[in-house]
Amino acid sequence: MKKKFVAIMMVAAFALSTAACGADSGTVGGDTQTGSGDKSSVTTSDVANKDKPLVWFNRQPSNSSTGELDMSALNFNDDTYYVGFDANQGAELQGEMVMDYIEKNIDTIDRNGDGIIGYVLAIGDIGHNDSIARTRGVRKALGTAMDKDGEIDSTPAGTNTDGSASVVQDGKIEINGKEYIIRELASQEMKNSAGATWDAATAGNAIGTWSSSFGDSIDVVVSNNDGMGMSMFNAWSKDNDVATFGYDANSDAVAAIAEGYGGTISQHADVQAYLTLRVLRNALDGVDIDTGIGTADDAGNVLSDDVYVYKADERSYYALNVAVTADNYQDFTDSTVVWEPVSNQLDASAHPTKKVWLNIYNASDNFLSSTYQPLLQNYDDLLNLDVEYIGGDGQTESNVTNRLGNPGQYDAFAINMVKTDNAASYTALLSQ
Question: How far is it, in rounded angstroms, from Cα 299 to Cα 297?
Fold first, then answer.
């Protein structure tokens, strides 16, 4: 027993010395465990940056033109995952929410009485999978979709007051024996002069232009997110009693439902934020990746299968979406409250503090800065993670990557890219 004790002490001393020597060479010392599902207490004194846990979140590594997943980024190492939400399910919900509103309010919604239900659409980023899905979801539900290479065309229509645009068509509905046309009057990508997409100010300007041009032909306003939706609501549609629909369930948008905002979609940011940090915690602890997710952890945290799905072939966790309307909006007024089933504090002795580098692609993004990050900051304490938060400018990847100059001082990484094509900008840094 004495010999065994001496041997252990010698190994520990060697580990400490090598950690001190390697801190500046792209590795970080410490008792860091692997997270590939091995529940044994296998540890290493030095972990190369390329082998540290990595989670992509909010923006899935993918080709911005085709939507094809970047599997090399998703398989960067054994502890790499993506966390987001089910974009297609949420997109369908948004489209159904808008159509449901039209059907319930058909007697009053046609403001000029021309038999055409006209809507305008704010598109966030023509190359972003989530934006593409939401545009497609709305067009599918409203019957305005056109096929392009086997998929619904998500191209902005520009101006389409006469219904002649090639990327959309007129939809038709019959209610109470009367037939109505549904027309996408106009749509455009909300990109500012500096190149930032999902730009709220641009959306506010756009609704000013559209309302001046189309007047009371606009019966519904639809947006790919609440940031742009609220900008249009405050600039025009609130004063003109025109229902506006967004996405994200931002606190201001949810509150605005009481003032006429038509509705929004909660992408369960509370579940997403938890998953973002949870998969890192599990990898750092060397436990099964499902711990505290589908399987209860030692503090009792667990998610039910009606709030998320995991697709192993995509190494991706997706939160499920909920429609937020006048019927239930009071349940969503505080978007920064943690999800109760996963709100239990982990024991620091069993889950020691680890340091995480995490970036938000755009510090000005309303959803990420006002909802997602506050949730992350609530969960990081519960999961014993010391997170350094980095806010980007939303325009250039280098604005973020330049602040990852010494990855060796972190145990894990959570990355929110400016563009979905740019995963290699980060993996190259971690591979040096």
Answer: 5
